[in-house]
């Protein structure tokens, strides 16, 4: 994958990261810091769209485990992602980055509905488009949303900014001896059931040949470093691309 040739990327921001040092909710300082990094990336000439998770507020699976109906819990999770998207919109606009939030669940008085061709136009005009409310469908996640929107928007890569610095051979939060991959194929992620991202998201990226770059966005400056090919990350792509690299 040649990072320098990329024109348009999708940044998936884990909701959990937005908690900052807290245990729940949205930390304004973290939003501001991430916004600065997005601005820097945009100023380098990239077109950027974003999907923000909701794990800092509500996850459907956790809600279902507590007794909520799963589909209702998932809708609650999707609404949480709208709050996060609005928080990031606010942080970006404070520093002069033009944005639009588009929600997969229409809410006319809050933001635009998701309209692909309109999103395309916003990006051509230099706006950062934040895709909120996931796919609008329960039983999915924002990882799958990110893969779907990256394909729809013809992105050159999907950058997953999370709280681990790449894909490991086991969950590093559970297995301290786990080792990180520099690169690996989509097929290996799926065959080994590496759970840094949902299988559906990985399969969508594989089928549309969209590389995934997993990196730690909690580390200050890492987004721009990874975009410059310098920071620590794992690049997941098709075997053919890995062989040609
Ligand atoms: N093989 C693996 N390599 C790296 N991380 C892994 C692996 N298996 C599981 N994980 C876990 O995957 C998590 C990354 O997903 P993340 O926390 O970004 O969740 P998310 O659902 O995308 O975001 P949100 O916080 O919005 O729910 C890490 O916290 C890590 O512990
Ligand atoms: O398409 C989607 C996307 C998300 N959800 C629900 O939202 C929460 C939060 O998203 P994360 O990806 O976990 O950050 C998720 O747990 C689902 O409950 C959804 O239903 N459909």
Query: What is the total domain count?
Result: 1
Helix % is: 25-40%
Question: Which residue ranges are poorly predicted, with pLDDT under 50 across at least 5 consecutive positions?
Answer: none
Q: Give me the CATH fold name.
A: Carbamate kinase
Can you identify the CATH class? Alpha Beta
Strand content: 15-25%
Secondary structure: number of strands = 9
Order of helices and strands: EHEHHEEHEHEEHHEHEH
CATH superfamily: Acetylglutamate kinase-like
GO cellular component, one term: cytoplasm
Catalytic activity: UMP + ATP = UDP + ADP
Function: Catalyzes the reversible phosphorylation of UMP to UDP.
EC number: 2.7.4.22
Describe the model:
This protein is α/β, with parallel strands linked by helices and 245 residues long. It has one domain (3-244): Carbamate kinase. Helices cover 38% and strands 18% of the residues. Helix 1 packs across helix 3 (70-94). The longest helix has 25 residues, at 70-94. 45% of the residues are buried. The model has no long low-confidence stretch (mean pLDDT 96). The site of ligand LLZGTKA7 has 21 residues, from helix 2, helix 3 and helix 5.
Throw out a few tags for this protein.
cytoplasm, 245 residues, Carbamate kinase, nucleotide-binding, binds adenosine-5'-triphosphate, single chain, nine-stranded mixed sheet, 9 helices, binds the ligand O=c1ccn([C@@H]2O[C@H](COP(=O)(O)O)[C@@H](O)[C@H]2O)c(=O)[nH]1, alpha/beta
